[in-house]
Amino acid sequence: MTATSTPVVDAHPDPAGVWKAPAGQVPPPTAKPTAPPAGPGLWATGAALAILGALLLGFVAEIGPLGHLRHERDRRVGYAQLRDKLANATAPVGPAKAGDPVALLTIPQIGVREVVREATTAEVLAAGPGHRRDTVLPGQPGTSILMGRQAGYGGPFGHIEDLEKGESFTVTTGQGEHQYRVLGVRRAGDPQPAKPTGNAGLLTLMTADGTPYMPGGVLQVDAELVSPAQQSGGRTPGRLAADEAPMAGQGSAWIPLVLWGQALLLAAAALAWARVRWGRGHTWLVGFPVLAALGLAAADQAALLLPNLL
Q1: Residue 33: which region, alpha, beta or left (left: phi > 0; alpha: psi -120 to 50)?
Q2: What are phi and psi of 285, to 5 degrees?
């Protein structure tokens, strides 16, 4: 008996030209392609996107909902401080430290009940209205100016343009309660009221004019003092600091902004590297709170560079 040899059948192409294995034979496994290792470009892109996202999220939250909550907290704290000073007769009637509560502004027609702090930098106006330090305090002879934000951080002066001529409101200071009567709303180019003389007093409320968060100028509401004027607190009008002028930003915010920005850059780079090593899920679980906190801190300083009446 002779052994018969099994014919060898070679793989052959199908009509489409694709090579197939013979019937009954399993084609050898093919190696799966492996992803190339992440290079510096991918890390840089991931870090840049993380920084941009954190800054945008922090900025929107800072001048929006979180800013409103911050303003409400500062208003309550300031009211408690001012009430204590008024009760103990220690409320300032002359020059005061920047940020200290100096008055309580009450305008029932538009729902305003705000603590007024000394100075008008962007940081002070984030807590509420501020008193311009180159003017007298409300209730005293001369011109007093109070500045407040139009939309950001609670927007305490967002509706002062709705005040009608002849309406009254009050300002309480360490010298008592003072009543004012509205003279009218004024914009750029409108005639200014006469400068007060003798014991006459003038109060100007000032905020941004135009679309919220996109100011196109300065809006002012003038009011005359109708209650008896009180003795001047010895304030000598001087030159106003550049960062306290209307629509000015706070230049001192640059240094902390750079420091927080560096911290945000390092954190974003570390997370971009960790994402390649640990995967997306674990990285964002750990990294999102860190980026959010640093983004809020950086956005807080960046917001101070914007116009103080925003």
Answers
A1: beta
A2: -60, -40
Cβ contact 155:170 at 8 Å: no
> Which residues does 65 contact at the CB level (< 8 Å), separation at least 6?
none
Nearest Cα to Cα of residue 40 among 280, 261, 272: 272
Q: CA 244, 92, 168: angle at the middle one, nearest 5?
A: 75
Full residue range of the structural domain in which residue 121 is found? 68-235
pLDDT tens, residue by residue, 119-129: 999 999 999 99
Close Cβ partners of 1 (under 8 Å, ≥ 6 residues apart) = none
pLDDT per residue over 71-96, tens digit each?
A: 899 999 999 999 999 999 999 998 89
Tens of pLDDT, residue by residue over 22-44, are 555 555 555 555 545 544 555 55
Residues 222 and 181 in one domain: yes
- Measured CA to CA, the distance from residue 165 to residue 185 in angstroms comes to 8
Same domain, 75 and 135: yes
